[in-house]
Amino acid sequence: MQSPVYKTQYKTVNGSFNRTFFRGLYQGFGPTIITGIPSSAAFFTIYERLKTVTQDAKSAGSAVADLVSCAIINPAEVLKQNAQMHGGDALKPVNSRQSPTLLAVKHFARNPGRLWAGYTALAASHLPATSLSFCLYELLRERFLGEVPRQRLEASASRQVAVSTFSGALAGGFACTLFVPVDVVKTRMRLAAGNTPRLGPLDVANGIFRKEGIHGLFRGGTLSFLASALGCGLYLGSYEACILFL
Questions:
Q1: Do the beta carbons of residue 105 and residue 80 sit within 8 Å?
Q2: How far apart are CA 53 and CA 160, in angstroms?
Q3: Where are the domains of the chain?
Q4: Could you tell me the pLDDT band of residue 58, with boundaries at 50, 70 and 90?
Q5: Quick check: pTM over 0.70?
Q6: Does residue 119 contact residue 200 with C-beta atoms inside 8 Å?
Q7: Alpha-carbon distance 21 to 76, whole Å?
Q8: What is the pLDDT of residues 87-105, one digit of tens each?
Q9: Was domain 123-246 assigned CATH 1.50.40.10?
Q10: Which of 81, 102, 111, 86 minimizes the C-alpha distance to 186?
Q11: What is the DSSP letter of 16?
């Protein structure tokens, strides 16, 4: 939805979504999985290591870990988003049976450096969003846990997991919504990664605002909120469960 051409790609003349929209949602799933595992491993390895070294600056450890994680994730995000939108004329398949993901890989193989297009915007959105999410998460978690009697809390690990899940969902959804404009700019930069000339984040943001207004900068905000709330809730709830049960 954050692409300027998603309506022409995935909507029919009567405004309904055509079948390719639902099939396209999972284009680029492979690269996302392949890079997701090492990026998560790198994040927690660096974070836990730096946390033990800098006890009073845990946010600095998470920032460094997030920068490394973003560098690993970015190529997969570029491939995924170009595969989902076919990235313009350069990526449109001549043979409809060809995988859009494979076409994207072949396209960027000629210039692999462009797989890191939008990294600055990705880092700019991840660093403050991650910090804000975890600050809100800890505050909400302490607040909700403080309202539960201590004896009931200690006797029910599942209650602690439920509180962590709910707190993570609220924190993640709120933080994500604030940074939707950065995500929109990042998406536009990635979809234009195979084209020339290349525009910087400020130029892209200015272009979106002039053509689409403030609504354009918050395109897809509702879906981003729901997806982030669900993802952060499950992620932090699972993390809490692992700590308590493993």
A1: no
A2: 28
A3: 1-116, 123-246
A4: low
A5: no
A6: no
A7: 20
A8: 444 455 545 566 777 777 8
A9: yes
A10: 81
A11: -
